[in-house]
Structure formats: structure tokens, C-alpha cells
Amino acid sequence: MIENDPLNEQREKIAKQVESEINRRLDYIQNPTDCTVSKKLICKLTLQCGFGFHMHNLAMCIAYAYNLNRTLIIDSSLWPYRANGFEYFFKPVSKTCKYNSNQNIHVWKGRKRNNIIKIQ
């Protein structure tokens, strides 16, 4: 940004407000008080492809979950980089919800009203 721009301070203030609101909503969506009734989106990281692709896929899953107002759950049980899965290297994306393969899951082919949807 231009150093002498009189609107620079206002832009920074607005950017911090937007950042705060996004972080607040993301924390709310990702950490529901009762995970058994919250709507979820499961992102499956299993493809045998590059690490960058997995990070791109995960970023898309985060965007979908945020947009659909669903808690993102990562299924990295078959992640090719580590038998322990994604959470061996990274913090869990939710403090309250974990992946459960016994749940009733529907593969996502667009917007659905089901409690749990999965992106493969």
C-alpha cells in the first residue's frame, strides 16, 4: 500500500475486522458444542498424488465447509504420507469432532440436506 495514503489506516481497520469475523465464524463452525447433531463435511485425503495437491484439496474442503456452514472433518486414514494420518503433522481442524467411519455418510454431488456429506 502507498505510505502516504490517507485511507490506508481505514483499510487496515476494515481488514482486521473482516479477519476477526472470519476467524470467529470458523471457530464456531469447527467446534460445535454437540458434534453428534452438527452437520459435517468429510474431506477424504487418500489419493496417491503430490503433497501440494493434498493441500489444495484441503483448502477447497475448508472453503466448501465454511460456505455450507458444516464442520470439516478430515479422513486421512489412508493418507499416503504417514500411517498416522494428517494429524501427525498438523493440529486437528476441530477440537470437538473427530472422524467416525461408522456414521451414515452421503457422497456429495451438490448441495444436500443430509447431516454428513463427503467429498472424495
For the structure shown, list the relevant keywords:
120 residues; alpha/beta; globular
What is the residue-averaged pLDDT? 80
N-to-C SSE string, H for helix and E for strand: HEHEEE
Structure classification = alpha/beta
Fraction of helical residues: 25-40%
Distance between the termini: 40 Å
Radius of gyration, in Å, reads 17 Å
Shape from CA axes? Answer: globular
Could you give a short account of the major beta sheet? 4 strands, parallel
Would you report the number of β strands?
4
Uncertain runs are none
User: Order of strands across the biggest sheet?
Assistant: 2-1-4-3
The DSSP helix count reads: 2
Share in β-strands = 5-15%
How does this model look, in words?
The chain has 120 residues and is α/β, with parallel strands linked by helices. It has two helices and four strands, in the order αβαβββ. The chain has helices at 8-30, 51-68; strands spanning 40-44, 71-75, 106-107, 116-119. The chain has a four-stranded parallel β-sheet with strand order 2-1-4-3, with helices on one face. Strand 1, helix 2 and strand 2 form a beta-alpha-beta unit. It is globular.
